[in-house]
């Protein structure tokens, strides 16, 4: 999978990312990056 395919997969169906450039750098430098997925259930 090339870098552009990874970025497309990671950003699919998300509201926001920190920055596109930061995501790109992360995917270029880490083979298995970790992410925090925050979810707030408020009523």
Verbal overview:
The chain has two helices and no strands. The longest helix is centred in the middle third of the chain and has 10 residues. The protein is elongated, with a radius of gyration of 12 Å. The relative contact order is 0.16. The mean pLDDT is 88.
Task: Considering the chains and any ligands shown, give keywords for the structure.
mainly alpha; 44% helix; elongated
Quick take:
With 43 residues, the protein is mainly alpha-helical.
Shape category = elongated
Distance between the termini: 40 Å
Helix content: 40-55%
Question: In what range is the share of β-strand residues?
Answer: under 5%
Kindly state the number of beta strands. Answer: 0
Largest sheet: none
Can you tell me the residue ranges where pLDDT is under 50 for at least 5 consecutive residues? none
Q: Averaging pLDDT over every residue, what do you get?
A: 88
SS class: mainly alpha
Order of helices and strands: HH
Count of discrete alpha- or pi-helical segments spanning 4 or more residues? 2
| Cα radius of gyration in angstroms | 12 Å
């Amino acid at each position: 999978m090339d870098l552009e395919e990874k970025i497309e997969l990671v950003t699919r169906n998300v509201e926001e990312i920190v920055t596109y450039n930061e995501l790109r750098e992360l995917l270029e430098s880490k083979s298995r990056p970790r992410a925090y997925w925050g979810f707030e259930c408020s009523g």
